[in-house]
Amino acid sequence: MIFKQLFEPVSSTYTYLLGCEATGQALLIDPVLPTWARDLAAVNTLGLKLAFTIETHIHADHITSAKKLKEIAGSRIAGPALDQLPCTDVGIVDGVPFKMGSIELVPIHTPGHTDNHFAYAHAGRLYTGDALLIEACGRTDFQSGDPAALYHSVRGKLFAYDDDTLVYPAHDYEQRRISTIGQEKARNPRLGGERTLEDFVALMNGLNLAYPKFIDYAVPGNRECGACPAGVPEHLQQYCAQIAQSRQG
């Protein structure tokens, strides 16, 4: 397998490039609109053809480049079937393997950050989206968030994997790139150790985080698989080309 971790530094978003050497196909997990050209160049430099883009969930802090990449490279768009987006070519279903050549991702429904959030397991790795971050987790106070559901998703599903399983999150704000399930079980201050469901729900409900500045445009834009909606105020136009600083994971 060919693997590359790509980082968009302004929104602190990780995009993951996976390539099949046998077929020459590639997929991108959670690509971001402002860096579509960089990501496609990375695919091409490796001698691959982009076959799919795959989303973990409908994002609130940036716009996906899935639609743009489909227009330019002819790639197909995959995302959670539960979202029922007309622009999606392939619906991801819990436990039903997603196959591209020799690469087989196992989708894991991990609600809590959003109700239709998915993580993906492959070859000793977990691509955890916003459900499990490095020593953190995604917020649960908007867009169908549910702290109790997130607790069960992470501790009941993701923490069930072997301790050596590598954790690749959708964001990190401290320049960290990778973790393991064992490390998160031991060190995650929100979900690790002996944290109880009641404690976690109280913690998440008491964070009092600021309202995400771009959510009202990102969510409808991502429901179209990567369209910058009409009416974006001038001071937010940069989100359509270059994401402004925002810790919304």
From TrEMBL:
Residues 12-171 form the Metallo-beta-lactamase domain. SUPFAM superfamilies: Metallo-hydrolase/oxidoreductase (SSF56281). It comes from the Bacteria. InterPro entries: Metallo-B-lactamas, Mito_Persulfide_Diox, POD-like_MBL-fold, RibonucZ/Hydroxyglut_hydro. GO terms for molecular function: hydrolase activity; metal ion binding; sulfur dioxygenase activity. Keywords: Hydrolase, Metal-binding. This is Zn-dependent hydrolase. It comes from Thiobacillus denitrificans.
